Amino acid sequence: MKKFVLSAALLFSALAGNAEGISSPSGMVKLDFELTKDGRPAYQVDYKGAPVINLSTLGLELKGATSLMDGFKVVRTSTSTFDETWQPVWGETKDIRNHYNELLVELEQPSTNRFMNIRFRIYDDGLGFRYEFPQQKNLVYFVIKEEHSRFAMTGDHTAWWIPGDYDTQEYDYTESRLSEIRGLLQGAVSDNASQTVFSPTGVQTSIQLKTADGVYLNLHEAALVDYSCMHLNLDDKNLVFESWLTPDAQGNKGYMQSPCHTPWRTVIVSDDAREILASNLILNLNEPCKYDDTSWIKPVKYVGVWWEMIAGGKPWAYTFDLPSVKLDDTDYSKMKPNGIHPANTANVKKYIDFAAEHGFDQVLVEGWNTGWEDWFGNSKDYVFDFVTPYPDFDIKYLNEYAHSKGVRLMMHHETSASVRNYERHMEAAYRLMNKYGYNSVKSGYVGNMIPRGEHHYGQWMNNHYLYAVTEAAKHKIMVNAHEAVRPTGLCRTYPNLIGNESARGTEYEAFSGNKPFHTTILPFTRLQGGPMDYTPGIFEMDINKLNPNSHTHANTTLARQLALYVTMYSPLQMAADLPENYERFMDAFQFIKDVAVDWDDSRYLEAEPGRYITVARKAKGTNDWFVGCTSSEHGHASTLKLDFLDADKQYIATVYADAKDAGYKTNPQAYVIRKGIVSPKTVLKLKAASGGGYAISIMEVKDKSVLKGLKRLSGNI
Q: Which residues are marked as active site?
């Protein structure tokens, strides 16, 4: 690791008055800082010499005290540069470069004798800034009423957004001009188990924007620790976004004790959409890994007892005889089983056998534990104990059986948003996992929070999510949290946070369907802060065939479901459909079996938000590559060059593509498979159907006998 401190003259230029300017290492991104006439901190950002963020003020409003908004003077400024290359425990690439120039502005508010610093880090692909509060006698404990960080847009940009909400991100995206958000927001709000929309122009981060000049902007935050989640509220008359924090039950938005700092507010910028997807800015703004030993943290490919409940309409509950449950009093051995509870020993054994036969690491089982009869919607505190199985789930036998097959079971902890109850039982639950050899848990936070009045994205809950992760680490357990706050790069610091949901995932294909362009947007938005447990791999799009009471259709082709294992980056990937649906299409299922979940290299080959994404990734420790393309309802035609392959190696490619007559509405299961020899000179022409895509496995040839009878692939597929 290299670190340099350079003279100020090399890094920033003094402007009039209290103004300073600092550029990124290449000079592409430039930030100017100044104090306005009334002493307000303000900044503006240029990209390649043109403004992308107009002059925007900064500051915090405090409860019961003079605000940290204005009346400041600059005490001093200092600059430095930093350059390192670090290796993630798992990730899209083997190495990540962290190279920035930094400007620290130290401010004093003379009227109160209080001090506040603002730290800016400028990268070639954007910037981050945060507020810092040094230890001082006049600012020790303080309560944030609101943070007023502004992002003044330079025009009425195109935006890909979801409604601002304190409790859920599970919305379909809307594409519109900024000026159109107010008129569209109410219609963009769909029902959810817990939701609190706060403004007619409020949106969530990460938000993706595109200017009329073809510049892409992304606004988000990094390293969200001991603070409230930031949303953005749009002043649509002046086209200025302003931070809007999630409140607690009393309406307060943050409790601080100096010395302390806020999370980073981030701006990623490029005139190439592929560079937005490839950016590591948010990861780089997080602290290095906190764990000395990470050998127990492993990427996971899994199947599970889940889709037959989500799509098939089967119950998580063991019996229909109980209108309510009191865990310590209810004797399930005396209850009549409903006979269709999927988390039973015989059914789970079938999943274990399927996983073992096809090379999957783990089997998720939902509905294994007592309490599901009245788990939702009752504001119930003692809802689960996370250790007691239903009578039809033999936890000891099933774990021993799984281990004998080289497979693990994956634990499921649904909290029903009763967080106090979960923390009360967490240590016992993790110990049970250790006892039976579980090393990963899918947790959930469905419903309104207990403590009542708290929101999913408030400071108190954000502290809980991190507490669950760090406590799990003491037991060498990986965490995949659903309904938690959207990620902000904390997986760098705590890499056992191996997955999150925190967006509208595949389950909605069984409810009301996702918009066909959904998976062309998520990598630009939700995935900017960390991987998503999207649960792809659905092969049967007609949900009515799983559940006669459903008339829902999954808005995707089968070929695109394969592509999502590459385009939706995650070290945690589920083959979410039922084993019997995979057995109908074993030739296509081969790609799911083959595709890696950890990578040495990633190349974003094509990208346009809301239209298409094409990605090539090199599997960890191999010379094998996998390619995926996901398209919107408009489809997409690719001219794909394989020049990322090594010239001194031979490869066999297997292409899984939409058939000519495929389409997500009318013929989603129509696909073709082509196999042949490829090289760095190969150029393939492929078409993704409406709502479709394609996937390619490119395997290094180690035994030349496998080449016999194969022709070279080229041209139209």
A: 507
